[in-house]
Every structure is written in C-alpha cells, then in structure tokens.
Design goal:
The protein is α/β, with parallel strands linked by helices and 326 residues long. The protein has twelve helices and 13 strands. Helices cover 42% and strands 17% of the residues. It binds nicotinamide-adenine-dinucleotide.
Length: 326
C-alpha cells in the first residue's frame, strides 16, 4: 500500500473497527491512528471492546477525540504526518434522526467539514469517506445507480450524508483533495451495530422476546456483509481516483421475512413478530447497482445472506454472555 500513516475516524465503530483491524493485520508497515469519541448512541462498552482489540496491535494509536471540535482535532493531529484519511465516524441511523436531528448536523455536517479542513491544513491529498444508500431517498428507480438524482432525501440522516458528498466535491474543486465517497448498503456482521435489525432480531429471537417488524414485513434491504464492504474500502484506498462515488452493496435485495426465517433456522427458535407500519424516514426497498463499483473498484461481494447470517448468528451465540448485557 502506498500510504504509511492512515487516520481512521470512527475506529471504535462497527465498520471503522473492521477496516482498522484488516489494515493492521495485512499491512504491517502501515500505522493506523484511530479517532473516536465513544459516544453513547449505543452501549459504549461494545466500542471499548472493539477498541481494545485494535490496541493490541503495535501499529495502532487511539485518540479519544470529538472531530466536531475543530481546535481539538487540529491540535491533536497536526504533528502526526498523516497521508490518508478514511472518514467513517458519524451519527448513524435513520430513525434516531427523527428524535434528535441536531446530533446529525453536529457530527455529520460539522464533523465532515472539519475532516476536509484537516486534509486542507495538513496537505493530505486523499479522503475516503462513508456515505449511505439512504441518499437515494424513496426513489422507485431501482436498482440505485450512482448517477441517479439524489436531491430528495427523506430523513435528516440521508440529508447529512448527501451534504458530505457535496462538501467533498467543494474541497476537491477548491483544493484538489481527492475524495472517494462510498454509499454503504445495510452492512452487517460480527461486532455489528445493536441498533440495526439483524442484531435486534437475533438477540430477541434467542431470548424469546418479540421483534418489531416494520411495514408489516414488506421491506427489502440490500444486506451487505462487512468483509465485502472492507474489500471495497481497501480498493477505494489503493486505486487512484479524483472525485468519485461508489455503491458498496450486495446487489441482491432480501425481504425482511426471509432474514427472519434464516435467523430462526440458525438459532433453532421461532420469532414472536410484532407487525408495525413503516417508520417515518424509512425506505421500503434498497438495491445497489454495482456496475460502476465492479468496473472501477473491481468490487465483487462474495458473502451470501445465508452464509453471512450463519456467521453472525454463530458469533452472537458464542459471545452471548457479554452481548446480552449490552
Ligand atoms: N452500518 C451500515 O449499515 C451503514 C450503512 C450506510 C452508511 N454507514 C456509514 O458508515 C459509517 C460507519 O458506520 P458504522 O455502522 O460503523 O457506525 P458506528 O456508529 O458503529 O460507528 C461510528 C463511530 O463514529 C463515532 N463518532 C460519531 N461521532 C463522532 C465524533 N463527533 N467524534 C468522534 N467519533 C465520533 C462513534 O462513536 C462510532 O464509534 C458511518 O458514516 C455511517 O453513517 C453505515
């Protein structure tokens, strides 16, 4: 890899953790600096657990830091000799943005502005950053292609993710910073997020509690296994782009009822379903068109929903003792 000092924001988060671990394991010459404020959007003990695993690598340095605080960010990072930023830290989650829109502006808008300002101040010429399938809004034009018009977000989360792509465009235009935006599609896997459906379904089915099934089960998501997403992020790091946006999905939408059926099969337990209407801000179906990612990133997702869920449920059962306490 051509980079030797990589900053990963959100390194104690789900995707940041997997990316940092993969780099530390496979590129021994690379130093990774992780930044996270370990906030309590979900139980920070899970973030600490991930972070402790990363801290066991000699080439990992963790900085406890809120990147929405510009002065603190610049002060802590100005002497670190960074040559790449992978910006994965954010306030995630569509539903929470209905309850608390302010934290999205703070962490995603101001936070991302600060990250691009950091790149400008420190002469870092490349930023790879997380966007989201949610930018496609309620579009019925499926599968979603990167060049589709995305000016009708239906949640504040989606609006901030689209802002991030626009901020990236400005910094590319004004300062020549190379910016690669990755629109992730419902990522799942080991050490995942407790606020997401697959985690909640697995936990509640195992403990015989009801699960909330939105839109009466008539929902489909392009579920993407985390190791596939990581290969896409690594390719975005290693290939040279100026300003690009890529879908990183599986290319195969799965109905919610099918996900529940598979989790029932792998846990050996029946779900108690609590059917509910579609939640405000939610999209009925996501589906990534992968033509561009396949062509330019050589992206080729490998893990089927059956294989991915089997791995996730196995991991969950093996770690049940501490996971159920989160
Ligand atoms: N997981 C998915 O399915 C998915 C889908 C689409 C997009 N994304 C995007 O991918 C990125 C990673 O998502 P994730 O699933 O790993 O989420 P996550 O919540 O597990 O990780 C985000 C991390 O960022 C940290 N963070 C947030 N605000 C911060 C701040 N101001 N300063 C420092 N740290 C801060 C959090 O503490 C957290 O550890 C996010 O940008 C998210 O919006 C994720």
């Amino acid at each position: 890899m051509e980079y030797s000092n990589i900053l990963i924001t959100g390194s104690a988060g789900f995707i940041g953790f997997h990316l940092a671990k993969t780099i530390l394991e496979n590129y021994k010459e690379v130093r990774v600096i992780g930044v996270d404020n370990l906030n309590n959007y979900y139980n920070p003990r899970l973030k600490e657990k991930r972070n402790n695993i990363l801290k066991s690598y000699a080439n990992y340095t963790f900085l406890y830091l809120d990147f929405s605080n510009w002065n603190a960010l610049l002060k802590k990072l100005r002497n670190k000799d960074l040559d790449l930023i992978v910006h994965l830290g954010a306030q995630a989650g569509v539903r929470h943005s209905i309850k608390n829109p302010w934290v999205y502006i703070q962490n995603n808008d101001l936070g991302t502005l600060n990250i691009f300002e950091l790149a400008r101040h420190l002469n870092i010429d490349k930023v790879v950053y997380a966007s989201s399938s949610s930018v496609y809004g309620g579009s019925r034009k499926i599968p979603f292609k990167e060049h589709h018009k995305v000016d009708k977000p239906i949640s504040l989360y989606a609006a901030t993710k689209r802002h991030n792509e626009l901020i990236a465009n400005v910094y590319h235009h004004l300062y020549g910073i190379n910016a690669v935006g990755l629109r992730f599609f419902t990522v799942y896997g080991e050490f995942g997020r407790p606020d997401m459906a697959i985690w909640k379904f697995t936990k509640n089915i195992l403990t015989r509690k009801p699960i909330d099934v939105y839109n009466y089960g008539r929902m489909a998501r392009d579920f993407t296994y985390v190791s596939d997403v990581i290969t896409g992020v690594l390719s975005a790091i290693e290939k040279n782009f100026k300003y690009e946006i890529f879908n990183l999905g599986n290319g195969n939408p799965i109905e919610l009822e099918e996900v529940i059926r598979l989790i029932e099969a792998y846990t050996g337990k029946k779900a108690i379903k609590n059917y509910l209407p579609l939640q405000p801000g939610d999209i009925e179906k996501t589906w990534a068109d992968l033509t561009k990612s396949k062509k330019l990133l050589s992206y080729a997702p490998k893990v089927s929903i059956e294989e991915g869920l089997k791995r996730f449920v196995t991991w969950f059962k093996e770690n049940k003792a501490w996971l159920l306490k989160l």
